[in-house]
Design goal:
Layout: E1 9-14, H1 16-24, H2 33-41, E2 43-46, E3 49-55, H3 56-67, H4 73-84
Antiparallel strand pairs: 1-3, 2-3
Helix pairs in contact: 1-2, 1-4, 3-4
Length: 85
């Protein structure tokens, strides 16, 4: 059986501090834990630089959530990551 095709991947450069902030979003209450966990699961280090490999469907969800006026800490770090890439 072939593996599922989950869509194109966007590669985002992130810092350790940004990773730690997103990782802290995997705990607590709210509907963002699974999104933060998927983001963290896709982080790989290449030549000493950290990159998050994010599927298109998750990028759409991240962009939708950060465009909202909510001011959660996890949303702030995603805004920061998207702004730097």
């Amino acid at each position: 059986m072939k593996g599922k095709v989950l869509g194109k991947i966007t590669k985002l450069r992130i810092t350790q501090e940004q990773f730690d902030k997103v990782k802290s979003g995997t705990a607590g209450i709210g509907g963002h834990q699974s999104l933060c966990q998927k983001f963290c699961d896709g982080v790989k280090t290449e030549n000493g630089t950290m990159y998050a490999h994010v599927y298109d469907a998750d990028m759409v969800r991240i962009k939708t959530l950060v465009d909202r006026p909510d001011d959660g800490s996890w949303q702030g770090v995603f805004r920061e990551i998207l702004g730097a890439n």
